[in-house]
Amino acid sequence: MLRASRLLRVELRLGAARRRLSLAYSPPLTGADYLHTPKFWTGLEPEKAPGFDAERNCLASLKAPDLRERGPELRDTLEDYFENGWALTEVLFSSLRGPEAYYRPPAHGLRHPLVFYYGHPAALAVNKLRVAGALTKGLCDDFDVLFETGVDEMSWDDLDTPSTRWPELQEVREYRKNARDLVLDVIRNHPALDEPISTADATDSKFVVWSLGMICEHERIHLETSTTLMRELPLDDVQRPVFWPPDHPSVTAAASGGSVELVSVNGGSVELGKPRTHATYSWDNEYGSRVIEARPFQASKTQVTNGQYLDFVKSGGYASPDHWSEDGWAWRSFRNTKWPHFWERTGPQGVHEYALRLPFHEVPLPLDLPAEVNKHEAHAYATWLSSETNQSLRLPTEAEYHLMLEANDQCTLAKARENEAVDDVVTKGAKELSATPLNANLAWGSPSSVYDGQAPFGGLRGNSWEYCEDWFAALPGYETHPLYEDFSTPCFDGQHALILGGSFASTGNEASVFSRFHFRPHFHNLLSFRVVSGEENPELSSHDAAKPWAAGWVPPQYKKQSEEGSHKYESAAQLAAYLDLHYGGSGALDGPASSLSSLSLSDALDFPQRCAAKLGSGRRALDVGCAVGGSCKELTKTFDEVVGIDYAQGFIDAANALKTNDLNYARSGEASLPGTSCAVEAFTPAEAAKLTFMKGDACDLPESLGTFDAVLAANLLCRLSEPQAFIDRLPSLVNEGGRVFFASPFSWMPEYTAPDKWLSPQQLEQRMRENGFVLEEAAP
């Protein structure tokens, strides 16, 4: 059994958050004679490894293996995939110029030095094979523990002091070599790889095969981690590896982008989660199932670029707390951060000239590449851009991210759930992907331009991970996998931000459409973001999250806010009902309503249009309680400008979506049965140019609205908490000679309006007369 040399002491410290093992060694930092020579490789040399691309002279990542295969097919594909990932790690580490770079702690103090990440995949392989029952003993007691657990820093100031003295590099190399031999022996000889699996068996239920998949994918996670850590080393410590994929051509291309541009997306239902019978490896948090309904929203066409983020830096975004959360500003102040982590200032202070640090070299800041920042910085930018554009912007939710994938009509969760082959990494390795717009699976060795030709959204997968508003949380049906109990569960704590989409260095499972990973908000990796304008308080996958919960976290509840009394119409059924009323025509009477022949329901179908017709013509019209905008659309026929206001963000989102896109919805059906799929045609460009929709409170309309020639208040009055406040605001809203039209059933209810504030038609007329209006027409 291999033993570490010069072992001075072993000290085990137990803490509430994590176990730390301190090993004190006295390694010589010399003896680099085996670096970058055949002696360096603990496995196959890159040119002999599976996946070597002779045309580009680089090692290309292979596609993920099918873990439901058995016999020689499984053994062959698993061995190739394992050897490919193992060799990719060693290609990456061949970039270090000497042993000193292995032991240099990162400047931020939040991670181990790279020597840990050189030995960590080997230790995990040995330990997980033992847990799975494929091995009866470990490889080296000291190393099996020393290299077992990484660092998950609890806070931005929870620095990991470099007190650990690490073993000699040659010893770690020997440990890796021996661990590789153990894994290959299991792949080639263990009988579990021949045992059949039934169609009903979960793929992760066969522990030996699953542990081998875990070993391969864990290696690839830390391939990406180590790429980031090397990006943080001094340039003198690294050189470009000979067999690393080339940088993407767009790194040195001229900038072509402009300002942030938003694209409308229809709302819809998204089912999260991966079937347990799919063939590729997944981490336990990807299993389970949850359906989330998302409202229509607008999202930036691409991730925020370096050029767009540079505007934030130039405007003093890092100098003022105005745009930062409390914790974000505390982090920024502690670090004295003035620009993104991977930018390097190249000019005098205040000139704002920067270079971008790539893994092995610097280039003049490519303005079209994604701005790689942490979540604190992403939120600060979104808040700043909100103030600059007079919008309410935030990060996407997990459900909204997947609706953007559906808008691109390529690989989506729904398609991949039905047919896993739709997921690119299942069918394509890096060599095949290098000819596509998808910068993932190490098809390229660097990030690339966000303008990748995909529409309507660029860069949703690969290139750079994307932050979500959601916290990392379990899906209903989640089960902690016994082979790795601490992979996900300690991070279900409300302190780890959910990230999706993968990066250029994400390979295998990380690049899958099902992948769900996480980092703390202050952490830097290959991470970017895009901005969204939509529902103010959207449903997150961390709302009402399934157990387990960690570190005392209790997931926040999601308030669906579907009650009329709150004036927020957030359910899909209510939105569909209003779309039917405003745009559905005769088809709105199909289904349950068709049996109500005794009622003249057809008279209600043009109600919004008939209300609008009462207001005549003029320059400006205001519809208070506009819902999804049917009356507003009608008013564009006779008015030059129409403003619609509603308290329900979902209605406003739908109306705004119609300015640029058709809107699909499901008409209500019988009981729980789905209704007919319907579509509302987008407004014409002429109509859209006249229309403005905004969220607002009828009881507190802002002065900035200006004045109008006509005001519509249909089905509004008896749902207001302060109806008289709205009535008394009208004199300052309506121009001389202007009109106000009320349509109300006067069906007052105490859950909406206190009884002492209810008005009769006569009281309404009297109050309007006192406010200077003259009654022209009244209907019983």
Walkthrough of the structure:
The chain has 20 helices and 23 strands. It is of the alpha/beta class and 780 residues long. The protein has a 5-stranded parallel β-sheet.
Structural class: alpha/beta
State mean pLDDT (0 to 100 scale). 88
The amount of helix comes to 25-40%
Note the main sheet: 5 strands, parallel
Helix segment tally: 20
The count of β-strands is 23
> Any idea what the shape is?
elongated
Return Rg in Å.
30 Å
pLDDT < 50 stretches: 1-34, 561-570, 592-599, 669-674
Describe the structure concisely for a colleague:
The N and C termini lie far apart (96 Å).
Label this structure with key terms:
780 residues, 5-stranded parallel β-sheet, alpha/beta, 23 strands, 28% helix, elongated, 14% strand, 4-stranded mixed β-sheet, disordered N terminus
Break the fold down into its secondary structure elements and pairings.
Elements: E1 9-14, E2 19-24, E3 52-53, E4 58-59, H1 72-93, H2 99-103, H3 114-131, H4 141-146, H5 169-189, H6 207-231, E5 262-265, E6 268-272, E7 290-294, E8 297-300, H7 306-314, H8 326-335, E9 343-345, E10 354-357, E11 362-364, H9 375-389, H10 398-408, H11 413-418, H12 424-427, H13 430-433, E12 465-471, E13 497-500, E14 517-519, E15 527-528, E16 532-533, H14 572-584, H15 607-613, E17 618-624, H16 630-635, E18 639-646, H17 649-657, E19 663-666, E20 677-680, H18 685-690, E21 691-695, E22 708-714, H19 723-733, E23 734-743, H20 761-770
Parallel strand pairs: 12-15, 17-18, 17-22, 18-21, 22-23
Antiparallel strand pairs: 1-2, 3-4, 5-8, 6-7, 8-16, 9-10, 10-11, 12-13, 13-14, 19-20
Helix pairs in contact: 1-5, 1-6, 3-5, 3-6, 8-9
